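Thread: "does anyone have the structure for this chain?"

Original post by V.I.:
We have the sequence but no experimental structure in hand. Need at least a predicted one for the grant figures.
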Amino acid sequence: MTAAISFTILVGATPITPNESTTLALIALNAAFVLILIALVGREVHRILMARRHGKAASRLHVRIVAMFALVAAIPAIMVAIIASITLDIGLDRWFEIRTKTIVNSSLSIADAYVQENARNLQGTTLSMAYDLDASRTLYGLDRTGFLDLMNKEAVGRSLAHAALIKPDGSFVMSAKTDTDFAMPEPPEGAVASAADGKPVLIEPKTRNIMGAIVKLREIEGLYLYTIRLVDPEVIKARQIVRSNTDEYRGLEDNRRTSQVAFALPYLSLTLIIILSAIWTGIAVADRLVRPIRQLIGAADEVATGNLDVAVPVRPSDGDVASLGDTFNKMLLELKSQRNEILSAKDLIDERRRFSEAVLAGVTAGVIGVDPYGIVTIVNRSAEAMLAISASAALGQNLSAVLPHVGRVFEIGRKSGKPVYREQVTFYRAGAERTFNVQITIEAGDDGSEEKSYVVTVDDITDLVQAQRSSAWADVARRIAHEIKNPLTPIQLSAERIKRRYGKVITEDREVFDQCTDTIIRQVEDIGRMVDEFSAFARMPKPEMKAIDLRESLREASFLVEVSRADITFERIFGSEPLKGTFDSRLMAQAFGNVIKNAAEAIDGLEQKDGSHGIIRIQAGRQNGVIRIDVIDNGKGLPRENRQRLLEPYMTTREKGTGLGLAIVKKIVEDHGGRLELHDAPADFHDGRGAMISIILPPAAATAPRGESRAENERETEKVGNGV
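Reply from O.Q.:
Generated one for you, tokens below.
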């Protein structure tokens, strides 16, 4: 293809001119194609030689056949290329002999001589006319119309097509009127400047049959005479043709060697194509002869590497080798079928395993797999976090040894024979007592064997149970407040009226009468206060949020308790930094007061055997971006068992307590977006004796609305240290 395109361009059969740049481009194109062909031939030869060196089957026969075809094709092609090159060189010599050069140069000289002769005539005419105009300088200064008439006569009398006076910038001052039917062209750029030295400047004809001249007037300052004369258009056209052909001829002469190379390269390309075709033909013939054996050997090598997807093509024309290939293919099909069955079973097992792992990793409930002997086989991430165990440590261990409470439920469920067995258990995990719903599910084997595996599902329902209890107690509190508070006022009024009405009348056992009526009134007041606490818990007021400094609420609450408990030392550590936040000051003071009051009552319940007195330390400050208030006492402390239940309504460790103090505090704190934590006293405070109640509240920018705060804190109730 490239050879045909190059030959067509070089012989001039296309619009593309075969000049030096075109010829070099064709040489580069054909050279690149020749190099590609040489590379292809070299690659084929290298492949054949490497096959023989490695002892490939029938490689010697391959080499012989390919060499024979290459020689048969190469010898005639090389001879044709040599003869064509000699013929091309002789033909090009005839093109560029001396006689041809003389004819071409003479034709161009004749045309140039005609143009030069007309140029000299125009130059003389222009100079003569300039002398006449200079002689009429006075007329130019006095009578421009008369001067223009003079110019018209001069132009017509000297057979000029146009004549004009122009300024140095090329603009026209006046033009002679002639019978020419075309407008006078603008002087070429730079022509006027060239005539500034007084010598005439000629404007040769290029594309049109007009010739011009410019000369500077000596007597009329700053003006130039610009003249135009027509020449024979046929002569100009012939001159252009001769010049174009001469340039083309000279280009061919200069490009002679390049053209010879450009013509030779297609022949070389064609020769290499023939050689390469011969090599490929030899390879095809050799492949035809040794293909069946080579394919069988190659397939056997592939099977040895584990590839059973190969097959030996069987053709009837291959004879006895075809029967061998057919038997080999049947053997491969049988092996492949057996291997695929094994891989399918393996893939199914892997798919089930991955699915189970994905499900176990995604569920929020803890899932533990147990074999028929009670050994843990699977533990998901939720079970690790929920039960505070390590999967690596639990795997291979007995469930009862790792989790005794869950193991007890597992044994009961296994012995019950039920497909699903459920039970709620409560035990300590990570230092906190939690309630779990444990479900035992029996998983029968696929083969129907008697041995069964088990799935233990564990759900942490502590928060749910606490929410249910709080809701139930709130409902109970509302009913108690409604049913009890109504008769309390009549009872109190009646007792007071009896005391006033009959107190003076009764003289016998007056002391007993006063004691009984006072007892009634006092107990009614106590019951009223208890009912008020019930009402406060059941119907907490909506917080009225304002920006306050919590230190003020702490000072107020601690002062109210301090004035009534002179036997207790109060330590206040509030710091100098304001504890700004958006809170309800009344509710926060109530919460702080309840906590400090509980601390004082805890000190009352403990006998100070060592002679020390009660101390309550109240410290507040910012810690890790939150506001933390700690109330620490050296009282009897908090119980280890069921500690988190102290935050539930009506749970108390005191004989006269209602169990609503910490529940109200927890509710107030959660309504303000915080949380309540129960801890033992730190070790550096009276050797760790007593309790520490911590209230963590958000700063001003992070205080959440009541509903959102409560909902979020219900989800995030967590154990901290030995508390909740």
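V.I.: this helps a lot. The chain has five domains: 2-95+255-295, 128-239, 363-460, 467-537, 541-715.
O.Q.: and The two ends are 89 Å apart (CA to CA).
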